[in-house]
Amino acid sequence: MRILVTGAAGFIGSKVMYELARRGDFVVGVDNINDYYDPKLKYARLQRCGILSNEAAWDSNIVKSTLFDNCLFIRISIADKPVLDKLFARYHFDKVINLAAQAGVRYSITHPYSYMQSNLYGFLNIMEACRNYNIKHLIFASSSSVYGMNSKTPFSEDDKVTTPVSLYAASKKSNELMAHCYSKLYGFATTGLRYFTVYGPWGRPDMSPMLFATAISKGEPIKVFNNGNMMRDFTYIDDIVEGTIRVIDSATDRGIYENSVPYRIYNIGCSRPVKLMDFIHEIEAEMGKEAQKIYLPMQQGDVYMTYADTTRLENELEYKPHVTLHEGIRKFVEWFKSEDNPLDL
Ligand SMILES: NC(=O)c1ccc[n+]([C@@H]2O[C@H](COP(=O)([O-])OP(=O)(O)OC[C@H]3O[C@@H](n4cnc5c(N)ncnc54)[C@H](O)[C@@H]3O)[C@@H](O)[C@H]2O)c1
Fold it and tell me: What is the whole-number distance in angstroms between the Cα of residue 237 and the centre of ligand 1?
């Protein structure tokens, strides 16, 4: 298959690109390598796929992987429509997986405009290109944050999601609505993946595992929001990537669609919510050091609990998460302390 992966220098995208290239698909990865967090980490992830930093840094330079003959990387923004159109015209993709986005719930409170550019305008460019270049299946990242103020758990794809509490969540819900509309109007398949708090090696520096591990290693205090009274359905990166690839490989004529619109949503989570304090204790145990803690009230944009009902993905595509929190944190801390981690500790 010929597959475009956007957000290919990101936490999830780099691993998806690696796995697809490894099994032999022809993969083109794109990313604008923005500085929302340290680009050193993005270049190091690309390096793992055989994409050399000095070549990847140049806009629109076509970089061949030194590891896989069937893998290329190009630094572009999905918000740049003419460049994106050229890419689609040149490579004749079968499928597109859109993981490029401005991520982060808390950042959307202070930087609302970043979310419009990548998550709405960029996403529209992707959908227009899919429509104009006959893409058979667009898979895109949504988020557990679309469940917003819902209090019924576990969160099911059949629940109503009309109460987002951050602009990030609103942008992801908008993507789902836009995709439904394009599938209905133009007949190509779209599938939205609601990821639940992803963690693991090569993770994001703005998310709690990395924030906690960094603070512990520097002897600085960690911020514990809502006085630790929160639960998250932490999901290990390998389980997320496996679920994503199952969806990429899935046939779009399985008779699963409602009202004959080829549009589907899946939760991808672990289905085992963990108390924030238990999560912190796991990290402390692996780091071999207790964290100093500052207890703070709930942050704007945060929700009390996330909890995925993954029955749909299990029934339709035999997805089962495998990695326990204990094992996942062990692997994360092992990487965090290793030479592979390019960040300054
Ligand atoms: N990690 C999680 O826990 C989580 C949870 C729910 C949803 N998601 C979603 O999954 C996707 C991947 O998340 P991630 O954790 O890998 O985030 P990430 O920030 O590590 O990766 C996103 C990548 O997209 C790139 N990007 C941003 N805007 C772009 C643009 N306009 N053009 C090209 N590239 C652009 C960034 O440079 C980054 O490398 C995102 O859509 C995110 O919203 C992630």
Answer: 13
The residue with tokens 């003419």 is 82
Mutational test site, ligand 1, from 83, 143, 171, max ligand atoms within 8 Å of CB = 143
Q: Which residues of the chain have pLDDT under 70?
A: none
Nearest-CA residue for atom 26 of ligand 1? 100
Length of the chain: 345
Query: Separation of 297 CA from ligand 1 center, angstroms?
Result: 27
Which sequence positions are flagged as catalytic? 168
- State which ligand 1 atom lies nearest to the alpha carbon of 9: 39
Crossing angle of helices 167-186 and 123-132, in 10° steps, is 10
Across the chain, which distance is largest between two alpha carbons, in Å? 56
Which DSSP string corresponds to 288-300?
TSPPPEEE-PPPT
- pTM of the prediction? 0.98
Q: Are 1 and 25 in contact (CB under 8 A)?
A: yes
* Residues 212-241: tens digit of each pLDDT: 999 999 999 999 999 999 999 999 999 999
